[in-house]
Amino acid sequence: MRTSQYLLSTLKETPASAEVISHQLMLRAGLVRNVASGLYTWLPTGLKVLRKVENIVREEMERAGALEVLMPMVQPADLWEESGRWEDYGPELLRLKDRHDRAFVLGPTHEEVITKLVANEINSYKQLPLNLFQIQTKFRDEIRPRFGVMRGREFLMKDAYSFHLGEECLKKTYQAMFDAYCRIFDRLGLDYRPVIADTGSIGGEASHEFHVLADSGEDDIAFSDGSDFAANVEKAEALAPTGERPAATQALSEIATPKVRTIEDLAKFLSLDAANTVKTLLVLGEATKEHEAPIVALVLRGDHQLNEVKAENLAKIASPLTFATEEQILAVIGCNAGSIGPVGLDIDVIVDRSAAHLADFVCGANKNDMHLTGVNWERDTQNYSVSDLRNVVAGDPSPCGQGNIEIKRGIEVGHIFQLGEKYAQTMNCGVLTEAGKNQILTMGCYGIGVSRIVAAAIEQNHDKYGIKWPAAIAPYQVAVVPMNMAKSARVKETAEALYEQLQTAGIEVIFDDRKERPGVMFADHELMGTPLLLVIGERNLDNQEIEVKNRITGEKSMLAISDVMSLFA
Ligand code: ATP
Ligand code: MG
Ligand code: MG
Ligand code: MG
């Protein structure tokens, strides 16, 4: 590819709208452009990366025995009524009508369509097990699309669904998928952890999430420092042994006793623990008589003008910095309205994820061993209430019995799940067994966020100059960068010949044939993260040499032109 014929679209300035580094770099390096909230156009460079991720995923799925299909993105409402999710799915499901007034949805996932397909297509136990996958656009009307393609509304997912005659067979495929996922994330060159995920009512180790470790991650995952136990925080909490809580958790569970019934009680409690620092409790909202509005308070350091804010302004708690400076905020506390009842207040600690610098918010009293770290919150879709305080905190004994819990941030890039008969039962998906009886099938489902992976890879691989792509997904393997080609026939000839040679050898090469200053060229290729730069300068040609710059290690070395192919051996 010649840059003169390419759409580089690099930006010098960091767009103000982008909060996390991957989003900033994806815009600056010309990978994507925003169309509307949560909707993106992939530009040529970005699309190359996306396709590479997709191909690695496809290769490993096929290697694990899954078969590719392609289902429609638009799905009839009937299928969703049949499964019960037309009622249950909630506002992330985008519903639409066609010209005949028939209802449809934009697929956020494809269990309904695939279960119906298999119910119609598969009649005999002899055709099982079966594992079908697709790489397809999904639409989820996320309440808060953010971080670029990391949480888009339209995004690319690989989703697979397996069908079995029983749990034993499902477990085998589940393990095969688990292994395939590990190979995929290994090949992508990512630092990731498979963690046990919460399955709600199904229970057991029937679900795993795959998380790429990054501070910008929206999930908390708990590890043991003494074994290979890893779980998402909800699951670690469900497994956690009781009775051995460190001081911080106890302090908060004390707040959650019936003793604390009003904001005044709460202020009193906290002032006692941090008498020297807590002077003000900024009440953002109070429970109404009907117990409808949540109580939310900011605990502030030092004097602060007391400021009552009504419940309708609660949306602003998405950024406590609206009300006070970072130094002033000691803790942000919320109480879930739903739990204000005879059992007393249920105190939650809010961590603001919209402000990156607050991501590591430490909560609780301002005293050693009285802090909670790594706590999480989720905003209820409409009500701005906060989720229950997660009980597992750093330093807790690991549920596996070995070591203590450490909590890190992760980006969920994959999720595998043993569904059991959930969809097959309601949608009547069964086959005739050997004994001639109808048997409902057992299912598994397996998702990977293909487009999210592109952003997650950047979160882990960048420096102040730009992206440092893992080789497997770099848009180009090498850039040919001639210095002042317009002034030197020798430089031009060498660059053209090298470009030709690399192309013929099937290497993905980008040839910078623009009439730009060297500084501009280097900045663009560093931003785009091309792993190798071949710099052709007039002087070095006296020795028939070029300079090789390694973007990943930063190393520079001289190389005889005749040896150039040795770089790709
Ligand atoms: P999250 O917890 O981030 O909302 P999820 O648990 O709702 O994700 P799944 O239903 O498990 O997502 O979907 C499988 C995969 O699809 C996820 O592991 C994630 O990598 C990806 N994914 C989900 N939602 C989005 C989104 N809005 N934008 C990009 N990728 C997404
Ligand atoms: Mg989700
Ligand atoms: Mg999730
Ligand atoms: Mg998930």
Keywords:
569 residues; alpha+beta; BirA Bifunctional Protein, domain 2; YbaK protein; nine-stranded mixed beta sheet; 25% helix; binds adenosine-5'-triphosphate; binds magnesium ion; protein biosynthesis; cytoplasm; Anticodon-bd_dom_sf
Could you explain how this protein is built, in words?
This protein is α+β, with helices and mostly antiparallel strands and 569 residues long. It folds into 3 domains: 21-237 and 406-459, Bira Bifunctional Protein, Domain 2 (BirA Bifunctional Protein, domain 2, 2-Layer Sandwich); 253-387, YbaK protein; 478-567, Rossmann fold. Helices cover 25% and strands 27% of the residues. The chain has 13 helices and 29 strands. The strands form 8 sheets. Strands 3, 7, 8, 9, 10, 11, 12, 19 and 22 form a 9-stranded mixed sheet that branches. A 5-stranded mixed sheet has the order 26-25-27-28-29, sandwiched between helices. The longest helix has 21 residues, at 167-187. The relative contact order is 0.14. The structure holds adenosine-5'-triphosphate and magnesium ion (3 copies). The site of adenosine-5'-triphosphate has 14 residues, from strand 8, strand 19, strand 22 and helix 11.
